[in-house]
Design a protein that fits this description.
The complex is a heterodimer of chains A (337) and B (352). By secondary structure, chain A is α/β, with parallel strands linked by helices. Chain A has helices at residues 55-62, 94-100, 112-115, 122-134, 139-152, 158-161, 171-182, 201-218, 229-235, 253-258, 263-270, 310-314, 331-336; strands at 11-24, 27-40, 44-48, 70-80, 86-88, 105-108, 189-193, 221-226, 238-243, 246-252, 319-323, 326-329. Chain A folds into two domains: 11-104 and 187-336, P-loop containing nucleotide triphosphate hydrolases (Rossmann fold, 3-Layer(aba) Sandwich), CATH 3.40.50.300; 119-185, no CATH class. Chain A has an eight-stranded mixed β-sheet with strand order 6-7-8-3-9-10-12-11, sandwiched between helices. Chain A has a four-stranded antiparallel β-sheet with strand order 2-1-4-5, covered by helices on one side. In chain A, α4 (122-134) packs across α5. Chain A is globular. Chain B is mainly alpha-helical and 352 residues long. The longest helix of chain B is centred in the middle third of the chain and has 37 residues, at 212-248. The radius of gyration of chain B is 24 Å and the shape is globular. Chain B folds into three domains: 1-33; 34-79, no CATH class; 94-172 and 210-318, MetI-like fold (Orthogonal Bundle), CATH 1.10.3720.10. The interface between A and B is medium-sized, with 32 and 21 residues.
Amino acid sequence: MEGKLELPEGVVLKVEDLVVKFYTYSGVVHAVSKVSFYVKEGETVALVGETGCGKSVTTRALTRLIESPGRIEEGRVLFRRRNGEVVDLLKVDFETLRQIRGNEIAYIFQDPTSALDPLYTIGFHIHETIEAHVGKIPKKETLRRGIELLRQVLIPSPEVRVKNYPHEMSGGMRQRSVIAISLSNNPRLLIADEPTTNLDVTVQAQILDLLEKLQEQYKMGMILITHNLGIVAEVADRVYVMYAGKIVEEGKTEQIFYNPQHPYTKLLLRAVPDPTKKIEKLESIPGVIPSLINPPPGCRFTDRCPYAMDKCRREEPPLIEVEPGHKATCWLLVKRG
Amino acid sequence: MGLGTFIARRILTFIPTLIGVLLITYLIAYAIPTDPVRAWVGEKLMNPQTLEQIKAKYKFNAPWYEQFAFLVQQLLTGQLEDPIRHRNVFDEISNRFGVTVEVAIVGFLFLVAIGIPLGLLAAIYKDTPIDFAVRIMALVGSSLPSFVLYYFLILLLFTQFRTTYLAGIPEPSLTCRLSIASWPESIPVLGHIGAALGKVPMFAGIMCGEFDVVGETFKRLYLPGLALGLLNGGFIARIVRNSLLDALSAEFITYAKARGLRKLSVWKHALKNAMVPVVTVLGLNFGGLLSGAIIAETVFNIPGIGRYMYEAILRLNFPVIIACTFLVALVYVTINLVVDILYAIIDPRIRY
């Protein structure tokens, strides 16, 4: 590889101008268009946005998990490995990538029911996840580790549960099992795709606590995908708001919540019901995400934006820094500046 | 519930199934408005006295349920007689079924050897000429009249190249057969099982150490086996292809990759998940082969169960029809049981 790749101190992952397209029969879907973000060690970064805005595709592209007809077209994904070496995950050879997957970068998949192989026990899932990275290891050892992991994610009687098949567990327990499997190798970066959607609120809080504790312990960075803004406010350090395959606003959590700049972020925050007030009607954002096949040239939110101007339709707005670390892409901000 | 209880319970459900199959077959045969006794006796021996005798013997003058009860009773006590050959039906069936088992085994081996690799190839090279060729093969296999393929293979591999022969079935030596036939007397339970297995010439050869019988059997039967394998192999390949592609596109495969599993482990997950539908179809196919491939037996001159059944139907030979139907039903329920057990071994969600 030409030139040594570098990352700023303390940054574990830096994504630059990631482009993912899906070549379907009905046309080319521009699922992820020039997305850039970074994650620091021990930091939690939230990726928020509506269903279908490209959050999951973005994170899966990081370790090249995009299957045909999808293709990663452009971009760089710089990752600092455990040994300090910085690599571009989109360029490394397959064996290096495999060694990073599940070991240094781990995923918690959204739907635990389909993520687990129905023909194998939870213990076996943990066993093979460890074995893939440390080489042959007796089942007894991984079983002990498995029980410990299941106990960590608050599964009752883990000695029994480790021998269970996925169908013998409830949805919530499966979700926690997936979390346990993902944590098998103490990853440096955890990509959690809706990790707590199937859990009730008390367990949810406990799991988030656990993840936070692990982050401190192992300096683990975390990308949290969610549309639960309550969780974002609680655990995220920084937030990226995605809309139709693009990041429209980014900033520290307080900046996003107290001083949202992009109209989409504003509407998104308004859609969260306030439990202290009586609600007449739930707020929603009218309209739907535009088709990502031949998306409009300008701002992709134009059709649903209450402040849309002519210019929005024609030209893509630039990324404007409104305060340190807080950026948004909107023509309204340009006019003001 | 343990495996033992499961099997015992399933075997109990065999009883109503078998009775049902027998009853329906009998009623259909009975409803045919002809005189079976005339068909049995033939023109030469036909005189009113003999006809009456036979009618009385098989209770043709009694109501249908008595007739049926008589046939079933004879069947279960093993006394059922073939009214045309004047032989015990079971003697004839056991000799012929042994041959059918051999054809089924050889055919099944070809089926697996052709269907599974082709299916895997079609899945790996999805939407390429290989995949397309397998699709064509499945289509041709299920729409081509089977005898066309059979005669083509005979023309090529027998008439042209003389790689096989089309008469007789290789058997072990007489001493071997006699010794196996005497086993039930000397060994209690296993002796009976051994003797039953010994009805298949190939097995008898193995049991006596006359292994050349196995080689000869393959030489004699590889042509029908190949033909049956080619005919159904395309279909099996399609099933393998589709279920493997289904498994490969499952989310747990992506998750397996995301966990950094080696390629081999990822494939293990996909293949095991793809196996359930394949086992079902293979089981049904084996059952079909065991029930006798009538056309193949006729074309390749094999004295198997299929042809026996066919002749019995032509001559309204009720006792033989009932006995053969019973055998086929028994084969199917047994194979279903085996398939179910295999399922339970593969898939923990199916626990009896």
